[in-house]
Write a structure and sequence with these properties.
SH3 type barrels; 2 helices; globular; alpha+beta
């Protein structure tokens, strides 16, 4: 399962971040790393992005980025 497939309000643990380049670096610097708990806090109006929380960080990411965050639980 990936972060895009999480329902609003549902929590999961990051299993792997399968991205490269600046997107991967930014997620890593914000704490979106293996073993951290992530929650889908909401979606954009046209369902093009998802709002994720990880610790104290709230980050809106595009669908393509969210699909690169592998989660379990």
């Amino acid at each position: 399962m990936n972060a895009w497939q999480l329902e609003r309000g549902r929590c999961a643990v990051i299993k792997d971040v399968r991205l490269s380049g600046s997107a991967a670096a930014r997620l890593h610097s914000l704490g979106f790393v293996r073993g951290q708990k992530v929650t889908a806090a909401g979606r954009s109006l046209l369902d093009g992005s998802v709002l994720l929380t990880c610790g104290a960080v709230r980050l809106a990411v595009r669908r393509s980025v969210a699909e690169g965050i592998e989660v379990e639980g």
